[in-house]
Amino acid sequence: MIQRCPWPKDDPLMIEYHDKEWGVPLHDDKKLFEFMVLDAFQAGLSWSIVLKKRENFRKAFDGFDVKKIARYDEKKIQSLMKDKGIIRNQLKIRATVNNARSFIKIQKEFGSFDKYIWQFTGHKIIQNKLISLDQLPVTSPESNAMSKDLKKRGFKFVGSTICYAFMQAAGMVNDHLASCFRYEGVNAGNIR
Q1: How many Å apart are CA 85 and CA 23, to the nearest integer?
Q2: Bridge pairing between strands 173-174 and 126-127
Q3: Residue 108: predicted pLDDT
Q4: pLDDT at site 191
Q5: Using CB atoms within 10 A of its CB, is residue 56 exposed (0-12), middle (13-18) or buried (19+)?
Q6: CB proximity list for 33: less than 8 A, separation 6 or greater
Q7: CA–CA distance from 39 to each of 12, 75, 165, 183 (Å)?
Q8: What is the rounded distance in angstroms from the CA atom of residue 90 to the CA atom of residue 141?
C-alpha cells in the first residue's frame, strides 16, 4: 500500500494534487502565477474548496493569462463577482488584477518571475524532513522575506503564511513527510 502524507485523506482530487503536483518544482511563469492566484483565494478557506473550483477559476480568469488579467476593467471585475463557480471575494478578485500588473513588472525587471521568486530559496529546494503533520511549518524566514518583498512591489494577499503555502505548492520547499512515497521523488528533483 502506498504511504502518503495524511492531509489529502480519502478525497480523490486532493490525492491527485498531492501525488502529481504538490511540491514539484515549478519554473513556468504561467503556472507560478496560477498558484499565486489560487493561494491568495485560499486565504481563510481550505485548499480543498479552492481545488474543487480550480477549473472554474481557470475559465473565469482566462486560463491564468497574466497579460489579459492585468487589463481587466471594472466591468470584468463586476462580472467575476457574479460568477458562482469561483470564490466571489471582491478584495481577492481586485488583488488578482493588481498582482497580475505587479507580476508583469517583475518579469520585465528579472527576465522572468521564476528567476525572481526562486532567489528566496537560493534557487534550491528547501528539504525539510518532517515526521508528522504537527511539524509542518506555516511560515519560514524565506516566506517572511518573500512576503515583505512582494508587498513592497505592490502585491496584495501575500502574507507570510500565503507565501509559505505557495512555496510548498511550487516545490520551493519539500514538505512531504519523510514517510511519504513522494518525499524521495521530490527530493531527487533538485534544480539547476
Answers
A1: 26
A2: parallel
A3: 98
A4: 37
A5: middle
A6: 64, 66, 100, 103, 113
A7: 20, 24, 7, 22
A8: 30
> Do 127 and 184 form a contact (C-beta atoms < 8 A)?
no
State the Cα–Cα distance between residues 96 and 58, nearest whole angstrom. Answer: 13
CA-closest candidate to residue 130, choices 121, 122, 140, 120: 140
* Cell triple for 139: 511560515
Q: Residue 109: what residue type?
A: E
Cell for 115?
528567476
- CATH architecture under which domain 12-187 falls: Orthogonal Bundle (1.10)
- How many other CB atoms sit within 10 Å of the CB of residue 98? 17
C-alpha cell read off for 169: 505548492
Question: Are the C-beta atoms of residues 171 and 121 closer than 8 Å to each other?
Answer: no
Domain boundaries in the chain? 12-187
Alpha carbon 134 to its chain's center: 21
Per-residue confidence (pLDDT) for residue 187, from 0 to 100: 64
Ramachandran bin of 9, using left for φ above 0, alpha for ψ from -120 to 50, beta for the remaining angles? left
CB 53 within 8 A of CB 87: yes
Return averaged pLDDT per consecutive 10 residues of the chain, 192 residues in all.
93 96 96 97 93 97 98 98 97 98 98 98 94 94 98 97 96 95 75 35
DSSP-based three-state secondary structure for 52: helix
The answer to whether the pTM exceeds 0.85 is yes
One-letter amino acid for residue 75 of the chain: K
